[in-house]
Amino acid sequence: MDDSLRQRLFDLYAAFAAGRIDDALRDFDDNVVMTSYAPIEVFPSLGRRQGKAAVAATMRAMHAGFEHLGYTPVFMVTEAEAAAVIVLARLRQRTTDRIIQLFVAHFLRLQDGRIVELREFMDSFDAVQQVLGRELFAAKAPG
Fold first, then answer.
1. Residue 27: its pLDDT value, please?
2. Which residue has the higher pLDDT, 47 or 78?
3. Staple 93 to which of 24, 41, 98, 124, CB 3.0 to 4.6 Å?
4. CATH number, domain 2-132, options 3.10.450.50, 3.40.50.1820, 3.30.230.10, 3.40.50.10170
5. Which of 28, 31, 62 has the alpha carbon at shortest distance from 45?
6. What does each C-alpha distance from 137 to 4, 125, 127 come to in angstroms?
């Protein structure tokens, strides 16, 4: 199942990158829990979502706000009922045309071959700075 899970995940990420949300959700359980550890003040569609419909709404909101120039798994480890994926995301913010590039880590838990949990981590400080187009804190000169 390890190789088939890897292929299913590659297919999921390709579908999401292309905006084919229904295809991306094919392997998600109806009661999936998605938790994205990101500041919801800047990324209001992220946070904790429960249920396939809520995850679909989150995915659609991300595509509404950002053109996905690339959403490529660069590292993946799979086991029978779990996976860890590091994704290189290249996005264009639709409101500003600003290009954002960041790594996102996904930890997935499966049950009976269905994704029942997705935890998402990113360098949210860097992501916020890129979305805002400025540094949040000016570096202090030594001395």
1. 94
2. 78
3. 98
4. 3.10.450.50
5. 62
6. 45, 10, 14
